[in-house]
Every structure is written in C-alpha cells, then in structure tokens.
C-alpha cells in the first residue's frame, strides 16, 4: 500500500492510482480505500432505488398475472359454455330435421288413410249392392215355389254366399270405426308436431330465441317498442362466441397477457440490475473490510 507525507512529498497519492480522485478527501491516504468508500455510498443509494423499482415491478407483475389468470379462467368457463350451447343448438337442429321428416310421413299417412277409408267405403257400398241383389234373388226363388229349387244345388251355394255376405257386413262397423280412429290419430299426430303451434314450431321458436343460427342482432334504431327484440337485451346471447361481451372479454384477456409479458421483461431487467448492484455492494464491502484502517492496524 502506497503512503505519503504531504510535507515530504507534494505530489498527490491519486497521481499513482488508476481511480479518479474522490469528490472529497477522507484523509486516509489510501486512494483505493477512499474510492471504494465513496463508490459504496453511491452503489448503496442505487441499490435502494433498484430494490424499490424491482419490488414495484414484481408487485405489478404479480397483480397483472393474477388478473390474467382470472380472465383466462373466466374465458375458459365461457368457452365451455359455448361448446355446450353449440351442442344444444345442434341437438335442436337435428331434432327439427327429424320432425320435418316425420311431418312428411304423417302428412302422407293421413292422405293414405283417407284413401283407405274411401276404398273401404266403396267396398261396403258394393257389398250392400250385392246383398240387395242377393235378397231379391232369394225372394224371387221363394216366389217361384219350384220344388227343384227348394234345397240342394244352387240353393246351397246361394245360402253359403249369403252367409259370407252377412259376415262381411257384420265387420263393417268395427272396421270403419278403426279406420276413423286411425284417421283421428294421424291428423292429431300431424297437428301436434307440424302445425303452427306444434312441437316443430316450438323448437324453431327456441332456436330463434337462443340465436342458434347466428342471426344478426336488431340494430338500436330497428328495435320496436313491442316485438321480437326486447328493449333490455341480455348480456350473453347465443352463439356465445359471437356475442359482444365474449369478444370484449377475450380482447381484454389478450391485452392483459401482452401487458403481463412486458412486465415480466421489465421485472427481470430490474431484478438483474438489483442483483448486479447487490453483488457490487458485497464486493465493495469485502474490499473495504480487507483494506480498511482497522485491518491494517491489526496486521
């Protein structure tokens, strides 16, 4: 360590050092010790400032991260709700498609039963005509009083034929009643499914209410005082992924995500500076301790 007496050597000891002369002379005569002491004060002040900045950036990063986590969980919930809403809408659409096919079948079924009823009606009209002619023929044979026609032969055939006619006629009321019942059921089924207030219309109404087809919302100037568009619109509408609320929520989440990434970089940079200053302070403390007057006196 270089020492000097200012009365014996008029040159400053700092002329022998690579360090610039400190702004004040502590009077130790050791230029390295004096510079490190001065530098330690500056580094300590910078470290306080860097620590405050790093703490602030870390706190801000933690807050933004928590807010982003909340928004992301929120968006995830709405995305899951959107998937379930899409599943519901697809199920409604599929059900409506099946009902449209059922309506075609019930319409044709009702028409087919009408045709069947017409055919049965024509059949029994013809049976009645045959019965009438049969009765006339039997009456005519009875009037002839011909012993040859009294029994056997043609009389037996006519008797059997008449019995079969009676059997057919006896089934008329039962058969027509069942056909009428079938017609009633066919029309009732068609009406309950396919008419203006049937099941299909109800499902179509709900697909419109739920906006499953993604129809454009009513513009404010187009909203009637009383009509399909309410004056108080719900915050969330189907389809969810097309709703203004959901779009704004996702945009906010992306904005917070960018902010979080930027804060992460700023926090890392502030912590790096803090670490560098901490290491510098530790080095200066070690150097000052090793080269201070107390250490030299102890030597």
What are the salient characteristics of this protein?
single chain, 299 residues, mainly alpha, 73% helix, disordered N terminus
How would you describe what is shown here?
The chain has helices at 31-144, 154-170, 172-194, 199-209, 244-291, 293-298. It has 299 residues and is mainly α. The longest helix is centred in the N-terminal third of the chain and has 114 residues, at 31-144. It is rod-shaped, with a radius of gyration of 53 Å.
Task: Write a brief caption for the model.
The protein has about 300 residues and is mainly alpha-helical. The protein is built from six helices and no strands. About 10% of the residues are buried.
Order of helices and strands: HHHHHH
Q: Specify the overall morphology.
A: rod-shaped
Helices and strands: which structural class?
A: mainly alpha
Distance between the ends = 13 Å
Helix content: over 70%
Mean pLDDT comes to 78
The strand count comes to 0
Estimate nothing, just give the exact number of structural domains: 1
- What low-confidence regions span 5 or more consecutive residues with pLDDT below 50? 1-16, 216-230
**Tally of separate helices:** 6
Rg calc: 53 Å
Please outline the major beta sheet.
Answer: none
Instruction: Indicate the proportion of strand residues.
Output: under 5%
């Amino acid at each position: 360590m270089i020492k000097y007496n200012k009365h014996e050597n008029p040159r400053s000891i700092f002329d022998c050092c690579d360090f610039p002369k400190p702004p004040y002379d502590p009077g130790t005569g050791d230029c390295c010790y004096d510079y490190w002491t001065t530098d330690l004060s500056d580094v300590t002040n910078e470290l306080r400032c860097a620590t405050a900045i790093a703490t602030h950036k870390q706190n801000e990063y933690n807050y933004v991260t928590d807010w982003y986590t909340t928004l992301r969980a929120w968006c995830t919930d709405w995305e899951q709700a959107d998937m379930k809403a899409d599943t519901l809408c697809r199920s409604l659409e599929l059900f409506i498609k099946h009902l449209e096919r059922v309506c075609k079948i019930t319409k044709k079924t009702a028409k087919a039963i009408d045709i069947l009823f017409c055919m049965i009606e024509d059949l029994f009209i013809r049976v009645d005509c045959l019965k009438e002619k049969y009765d006339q023929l039997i009456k005519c044979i009875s009037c002839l009083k011909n012993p040859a026609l009294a029994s056997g032969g043609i009389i037996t055939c006519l008797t059997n034929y008449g019995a079969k006619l009676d059997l057919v006629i006896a089934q008329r009321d039962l058969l027509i009643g069942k056909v009428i019942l079938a017609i009633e059921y066919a029309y009732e089924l068609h009406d309950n499914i396919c008419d203006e207030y049937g099941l299909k219309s109800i499902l179509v109404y709900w697909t419109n209410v739920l906006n499953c087809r993604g129809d454009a919302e009513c513009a404010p100037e187009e909203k009637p005082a009383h009509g399909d568009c309410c004056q108080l619109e719900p915050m969330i509408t189907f389809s969810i992924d097309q709703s203004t609320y959901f779009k704004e929520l996702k945009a906010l989440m992306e904005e917070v995500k960018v902010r979080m990434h930027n804060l992460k970089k700023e926090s890392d940079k502030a912590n790096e500076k803090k670490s560098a200053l901490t290491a510098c302070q530790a080095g200066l403390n070690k150097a000052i301790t090793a080269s201070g007057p107390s250490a030299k006196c102890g030597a």
